[in-house]
Q: What sequence folds into this?
């Protein structure tokens, strides 16, 4: 008796209805919010793009985009398809890259995202060690806060992230290998007027210039909560940046302050160019770690980067 296998509904949809051009079109619609501009970016005519979108909506039985007077906007279903389409295309790009790497020896490209502290020590050491073993691997590094990098990881734009998972939805589809936390101190220039103040209070710091991370970051939220918990206004004079060279130069040439892990500026502290102000902020960040996508096969270059990061992390104090 012959056994007949029945494909799941999702299999039938992918095999019978889904086209690569539709995936490309979905991603471009998400970027441009316009069928005309998305069609141009996908090398399609506008009528062809409209037809592909209509076929996809018919196959799914849902509306993916609202037609607006000027352009289109994704529905809830459209957001899902855009995200999944981007990940699917990234997977095919990665497959092509992996085949090329196997043909030519370990080379290719690995895209790594990192929060600021690992960018100054852990990641550079791992990159140096990786290059000693695999000099042809091209490493692209992004330094940012965790939230946007996790979004890029889920979309397939990054291979791995050294950061934090901040929402339950992402936690369900990502792997997390904890590495370290980041106790923060208040950093200022050497000789700062408050550097020797006994019993320094947070209220004395409100009127200073502060260098802060962007709104929405964990540290920014916790600093905001710190001031609110003591009934204080937020600092009025602020500069927002994550760029360490900008931060250190502002600190060296002014009386501004910044909450930072001491590891980031240890050379400046050792050289007595910067100092730690005598106040306990009580701010500790959640553990950061290595984040990868579940059920995703890393390319040989990305896998080598992951293994090297693990090796370096083990040897660090």
A:
């Amino acid at each position: 008796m012959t056994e007949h296998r029945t494909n799941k509904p999702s299999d039938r949809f992918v095999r019978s209805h889904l086209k690569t051009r539709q995936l490309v079109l979905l991603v471009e619609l998400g970027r441009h919010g316009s069928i005309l501009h998305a069609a141009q970016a996908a090398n399609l005519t506008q009528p062809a793009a409209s037809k592909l979108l209509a076929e996809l909506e018919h196959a799914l039985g849902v509306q993916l985009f609202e037609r607006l007077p000027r352009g289109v906007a994704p529905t809830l279903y459209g957001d899902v398809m855009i995200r999944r389409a981007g990940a699917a295309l990234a997977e095919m790009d990665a497959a092509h890259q992996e085949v090329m790497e196997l043909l030519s020896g370990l080379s290719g490209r690995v895209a790594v995202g990192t929060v600021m502290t690992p960018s100054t020590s852990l990641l550079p050491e791992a990159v140096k060690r990786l290059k000693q073993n695999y000099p042809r691997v091209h490493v692209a590094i992004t330094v940012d806060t965790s939230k946007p990098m996790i979004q890029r990881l889920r979309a397939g734009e990054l291979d791995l992230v050294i950061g934090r998972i901040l929402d339950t939805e992402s936690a369900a589809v990502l792997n997390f290998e904890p590495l370290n936390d980041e106790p923060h101190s208040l950093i200022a220039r050497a000789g700062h007027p408050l550097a020797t103040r006994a019993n320094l209070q947070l209220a004395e710091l409100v009127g200073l210039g502060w260098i802060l991370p962007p709104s929405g970051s964990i540290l920014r939220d916790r600093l905001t909560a710190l001031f609110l918990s003591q009934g204080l206004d937020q600092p009025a004079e602020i500069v927002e940046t994550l760029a360490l060279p900008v931060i250190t130069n502002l600190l060296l040439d002014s009386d501004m302050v910044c909450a930072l892990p001491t590891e980031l500026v240890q050379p400046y502290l050792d050289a007595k160019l910067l100092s730690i102000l005598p106040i306990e902020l009580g701010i500790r960040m959640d553990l950061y770690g290595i984040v990868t996508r579940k059920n995703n096969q890393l390319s040989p270059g990305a896998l080598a980067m992951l293994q090297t990061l693990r090796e370096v992390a083990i040897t660090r104090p």
Observations:
- The first helix runs from residue 9 to 16.
- The mean pLDDT is 86.
